[in-house]
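Weekly sync notes, structure subgroup
Attendees: PM, AL, DS (notes)

Item 1: joint prediction request from the bench team. They want all two components modeled as one assembly rather than separately. Inputs as received:
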Amino acid sequence: MDKGKGVMPSNGRRWAVDFSDNSTSPSSRDVPDPPGFSRASIDQDDSTLSRQKKDAESNWKAQKAWEVAQAPFKNLLMMGFMMWMAGSTVHLFSIGITFSALWQPISALQSVGKIFEPYKDSRVELLGPKLLFIALNLGGLALGVWKLNALGLLPTHTSDWVSSLPPAQEVEYSGGGLNLS
Amino acid sequence: MAIRVFHFILLFLSFTNLTYSLYEDQVGLMDWHQKYIGKVKHAVFHTQKTGRKRVLVSTEENVVASLDLRHGEIFWRHVLGTNDVIDGLDIALGKYVITLSSDGSILRAWNLPDGQMVWESSLPGSKASKSILNIPKNLKADKDDLILVYSKGSLNAVSGVDGEVLWKKDFADESIEVSHIIQSSDVIYVAGFVGSSKIHVYGLNAKSGELLDKNHAALPSGTFGELLSVSGDTFVVLDEMRSKIVIIHLKNGEISYNQKHISDLTEDIAGQAVILPSRLPGMFALNINSYVLLIKVTNQGELVLVDKVNNGAAVSDSLSISEDEHAFAFVHYGDNKIHLSVKNVNDWNHDLLKESIVIEHQRGKIDKIFVNNYVRTDRSHGFRALMVMEDHSLLLVQQGEIVWSREDGLASVVDVTTSELPVQKEGVSVAKVEQNLFEWLKGHMLKLKGTLMIASPDDLAAIQALRLRSSEKSKMTRDHNGFRKLLIVLTRAGKVFALHTGDGRVVWSILLPSLRKSEACENPVGLHIYQWQVPHHHALDENPSVLVVGRCGPSLSAPTVLSFIDAYTGMELKSLSPAHTAAQVIPLPHTDSTEQRLHLIIDDNQHAYLYPRTPEAIDILKHEFSNVYWYSVDADNGVIRGHALKSNCVQEAVDEYCFDFRDLWSVVFPSESEKIIATMTRKPNEVVHTQAKVMTDYDVMYKYISKNLLFVANAAPKAAGEIGTVIPEEAWLVIYILDTVTGRILHRMTHNGCQGPVHAVFSENWVVYHYFNLRAHRYEMSVVEIYDQSRADNKDVWRFVLGKHNLTSPISSYSRPEVIAKSQSYFFTHSVKAIEVTSTAKGITSKQLLIGTIGDQVLALDKRFLDPRRTVNPSQAEKEDGIIPLTDSLPIIPQSYITHALKVEGLRGIVTVPAKLESTSLVFVYGVDLFFTQIAPSRTYDSLTEDFSYALLLLTIVALVAAIFVTWVLSERKDLQDKWR
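Output from the run, pasted for the record:
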């Protein structure tokens, strides 16, 4: 504002109203408050109202956060059903299901902060929902890994480790055979 | 994990890829086929009457063929069996080609124009003798034209019309070596020697074979060589001192002779005389040293020397050009040229033809010459000469020029190796690219049309032509996929050819000077060809080279010839005639700093000689001294011995490149029950990808992969012969798998009631072999797979995760790992000439067996069919792993013949070479014909197919990019409009 004033003459501007100014002292203004307008009463009214409102909101937020935290559970059941449907053979469908089952929890875990962002409040305890959310997603991940293993796509067998081992070198060399004819 | 996915893909492929086959328009894209006939033995020209300009030939590869005289192409050709050696060839009745083969026991008539067989008759006999085919003119018995055949000790008169034997006269009891059949009106005279000095003549009735008279006379001394007919009843032969010529007259069965010293004819030439076997009326040719004497026999029986030719090479048979005029051709060398003269027999001073021809030095000397005449437009006689060269090639010379030539030496390939082509040089000229750009675009447009199925028949033909003459495949540089290579083949003539794999053309050829007949080397034979230097890391600027090992004569004690040839230029780098012999050549797995491979040549006294003879090579060998072993198979005595290097030779002359061996072990097979009939080892350059084989339940079997394994097949001594000579109870086949370092027998198995011939192939940890089952009256194939049990307890995953295992550390055969073998047998319909297995660069691709069948085709059979894990009812998991339900016989799928509609006549061997592209293996099949192709046992999973339309891809990409751009612009515009609203 000071800056605005300072540059005013040079711009040739006569007056300006700063709507963002909500200082209570009318003396600092060029223009007096309209008659019947009391600045102090607004502030008071606002503070009581907002306190009530905020309480409701934080309650609502906490409730919502728990809801969000429980959401993966449904997902988990859904995934389990899909996996059961997909069967245990490796084909496009089962691989797709399994990878989506792995990807969903991972992406969810990555964005835990973002998901609970709207419910962030100094008065709302988000740790509980977050932990539940993480736990459920880890459960989903575990389900995915279990499915992966069931499909035989995890290196849990010796065969997965030795199948690319080159043959051992031999120390001796022997040649010969029938005489050349 | 990945394995499972891989198996899944394999399974998927296995459904699509049960048959390896190609489409009709793919023939000739990657394969080529060349037809040959071999070294010509006899040639008979069609007479003027038959009109067509053709020549009939029979060759040392047992081929009867009719060649076009204009271009040298084959009109028709028949390849007889390997034991069916052709002894005689002639034309009968003006329409039949008569061949006498199999030591004179089979007489066949082929239709002259198209080569169809008209009749065949067998002429049995007990006594082995020379066989003579004589087709007399105008000799008839009851209207039948007679063909006289002397074979197996009896004279047969065969009807020319249907091959029926009209009469037969047996001479088996007379102990006579019949050498000539003379026919005069109604009497047939048979002349021959008893011993070397008694001449006998029998007169027979031509119509009935009745013996009319019999006469004999004793010559004053023994004879040398063959009796040569000079005219109807006059013969010449050399006496046993080779100094006199004996002239024998047989007038109406009466024998009279006179003789003359060669020195009386010519005084200034002395040496060992040989009568050349050319048939000239009233004349004969005598070879003394490098001189050819042409000697005329007068009616009075006198000899007159007509001409003396230095550096004479060959004399043709005579040719009747008119009623009583006979011409013949002879060639002699001079001034780096070949001088061909055609002369009239009766008029010596007059040349009918005199020409000088320049023939490539690489073709060597002229071996045989056949002459034929034609009538020019001015009614004079023209002559053409068919020449058989030292390298077995065939040339037609007419009017002083070579009209055509055939590289028929390639019909007798002895050994094959390969070489890489040079790396492409930097800086391809831009002009060339620009010039080709339009062509390239046009080609791709055509292909695009083909892909979109809007091509007209003309376009389709253009596409096919474009694909076939793709210049890409015949370039002389190395390609990215490793499809272009040089096939270096050694032929029986001692000539080395380099063939381009792209189109099969001869890149270079060299008739090895060291393998040519000379006084020092009487009967040179090329034995093997080895890769001597394969530069890839250190010595890239050097050309690769090959080593040819030859020997002067068939016996083991004949002197050795070594020849080193540059694989790019075909120049002989050097040739050695070492003092030692060569019984075996062992290429060692070590190379020196210039990438020359170390070779040990073992002589017949069990000394080893190291090559290359450099101090560096000795250092390398000293370093590996205790690890180099050698084994010898003595098939005659049934012994296999193992040896190890001991020390330098103990000889008078110190040779630090010579080493002694000590005997380590020997395996002696009981000679009364077993005889070695086949041995097989792994290819030394085979690459194996993995040592583990994964079973269906994730279990692991460790393959026993050792290069020092030897497969030996022993048959019962009685059953070592042909099939059908023994009853099943007397026949058995015992197979062994030996470790050649320690002599340990890893596996032994007996097949009762089975016998050879055994054909085997050894690869990775398995052997597949083919034999005959006498009880089932069918051929069988068996597979034996060897697994290493001592590694089987490596089961802890964590040890692998942490890398704490010793599966890749070097192993020794002396650790005596416990092995188990699994085997299974199947019936197989065909009898087999050769078995080979595909080889790929990394050994990842699944293998196919290549079976050269008796029909001279090559069948590709998946190794999966020969898998000991096959069961009648495989479980679901096993099926997923690609295990085929067990059947009693191996399937023969017509589409899996890699030779498709072609035949590789006289198939003798199959060679597989890995390409750089892992999926692909190059296959070269040789016999009388040559065939080359590329095969991909699991399809070309690592590259786009040849007919992939890059233009379509490009077009799609461009269209997509354009679409993205347009939609982006549109969406931007819409956004802006939305904002203004």
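Discussion: Chain B is about 10% helix and 45% strand.
Action: AL to compare against the crosslinking data before next sync.
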